[in-house]
Every structure is written in C-alpha cells, then in structure tokens.
Amino acid sequence: MSLSNKLFQGIGMTSQRTRDRLIQRLKDQGIDNELVLEVMARVPRHVFVDEALAHRAYEDTALPIGYGQTISQPYIVALMTQQLLVDGIPNSVLEIGSGCGYQTAVLASIFPQVYSVERIEALHKLAKKRQAELEFYNVQLRHTDGNLGWPIPNYQFDRIIITAACTEIPEVLTQQLVEGGSMIYPFDDGRDQTLMKLNKTSQGVDTEALIKVSFVPLLTGLA
Ligand code: SAH
After folding, report:
1. Residue of 4, 72, 92, 182 marked active site
2. Which SS3 state, helix, strand or coil, does residue 200 take?
3. CB 186 within 8 A of CB 79
4. Pocket flag, ligand 1, residue 145 (CB < 6 Å)
5. N or C terminus: which one in the chain shows less Cβ crowding within 10 Å?
6. Is 72 among the residues known to form the active site?
7. Which tens digits make up the pLDDT trace of 190-210?
8. Residue 136 CB–ligand 1 contact under 6 Å
9. Whose CA is nearest to atom 13 of ligand 1?
C-alpha cells in the first residue's frame, strides 16, 4: 500500500467509524454541503496533529500544533469551506495561514488550484511535507506574510480565506480577489471575533457577519 493510502486510512480512534461520527455532528450543526461532508470524512485530520493527540483528532475542537498555533475546529473548517462554495466550485482559492495544512488539504480536495501562505517557517515546512505525503499536487505553499498577499503582483483569486483573526483586511487581499469573488475571514473588533464574508462587486465590496468565532491573531512579519 502506498504511503498516501496508508495515511488516508486509520485505525481505532482515527478509523472511518470515528470520522463518520464527526461528520454526523457537523450535519447536526447545519453543515449540508455534500461535497464538504464527503471530503471531511476522507481527509485524515489525525495526520495533521501530533501523534500524542491523534486520538482526539476527530473531536470537534481546535487542537495545539506547536508554536502557539492551533489546527482549526472541524465545524469552523466545514462552515468556512461551505461558504466558499455557495455559487458552485470556483477555480482558485488563496488561504492566509496554512498552519499544519489541514484546511489546505480540505480545499485541495475541492478546488482545482490552491495557494496558501504561512508566516512561521517550521509550520510552512510541515504543511509542505503533509501535502506531499498525501499527494496533493494542486497546492502551492509559500513562507511569507499574508498581509502582503500572494507574492506575485496582480495575481487574482476566485476566493480568499483568512484563517487568523484580523483587525482590518489587508488592502492587497481585496485587490487580489476577482470581481464577483468572495473572501471569508475572522474579524476582531477588540472585544469579539466575528466570522465575516466579503463580496467584491463592480460597485465595491459588501460584508456580512456570520457567527462569533475564536481564532489566533493575524500577525505581521516572518518567524
Ligand atoms: N488553516 C489552519 C489554521 C492554522 S491557525 C488549519 O487548517 O488549521 C492560523 C495560522 O495563521 C497560524 O499557523 C499562524 O502562524 C498563521 N498566521 C498568522 N498571521 C499570519 C500572517 N500574517 N501571514 C501568514 N500566516 C499567518
């Protein structure tokens, strides 16, 4: 059996049965996009966490991944992904904050082209290793500050997902979003964090608040 096949499978607390219980929980909480549910049942979240935490990988909670960062809660990953897909399957998506690469892998199972940036070099390298092991060939990862956008000027994406809480949206990200595209991001107003959706139209941008959330902050510079 190939390494990637082995990694997709699991046993005991990482088995398909355990994962299916998580999927039922996501459904109970209102996740109804069949593709998102199918992909989240298949992508092995336990591969993205420390071995000592693998038995908790299919609980619906965020878990530590080192460097003061976390792997996002499955419900939030599902909700954000579902929001990116309300108008069908777009071609490209840019993720800010690869972390260990779990959300990246979910996106790569759906979008033809996935781009993701991470400011912490060790996590960037880890995410890169995981994508290679799982044989995702449609992902481009960069060790760079997401506040600067994708490091090719004038590049544009159909969707953008920010997976760290920001106090304002970096201007370059709105520029790198196609007209008709949307961006999903946690916004921190200094008191609470709210998951927001921004739509870019020919008239400008409009935003919509979704739910209260809790993310690690979007920082600046490299580490
Ligand atoms: N998408 C990840 C979430 C990881 S947590 C998942 O699937 O679990 C958020 C990540 O954003 C952290 O790894 C953090 O280092 C990263 N981050 C924070 N500020 C950033 C910035 N300015 N540019 C790139 N990555 C950033």
Report:
1. 72
2. strand
3. no
4. yes
5. N
6. yes
7. 999 999 999 999 999 999 999
8. no
9. 99
Q: How far is the CA of 1 from the centre of ligand 1 (A)?
A: 33
What are the tokens at 134? 């799982």
Name which residue sits closest to atom 4 of ligand 1, judged by CA.
Answer: 99
Q: Which two tokens stand for residue 210?
A: 């979704």
Please work out whether the CB of residue 116 comes within 6 Å of at least one atom of ligand 1.
no
Span 97-102, average pLDDT:
98
**Structure tokens, 171:** 């201007």
Domains of the chain are: 6-212 (3.40.50.150)
Q: What is the mean pLDDT of residues 129-156?
A: 97
What tokens were used for 135?
Answer: 């044989």
Half-sphere exposure of 125 (CA within 13 A, CB side): 4
- Taking residues 150-178, report their average pLDDT: 97
Which has the closest alpha carbon to 140: 78, 148, 132?
132
Which atom of ligand 1 is nearest the CA belonging to 120? 15
Question: What is the residue type of 121?
Answer: E
From the CA of 203, how far away is ligand 1's center (Å)? Answer: 31
Q: Which residues contact 86 (CB under 8 A, 6 or more apart)?
A: none
Q: Is the pLDDT of residue 13 over 90?
A: no
Q: How far apart are CA 107 and CA 210, in angstroms?
A: 20
Average pLDDT over residues 85-100: 97
Atom of ligand 1 nearest to the CA of 97: 11
Residue 1, pLDDT above cutoff 80:
no
Give the span between the Cα atoms of 62 and 109, in whole angstroms.
21
Distance between CA 199 and CA 207 in Å, rounded? Answer: 6
Q: Rounded mean pLDDT of the chain?
A: 96
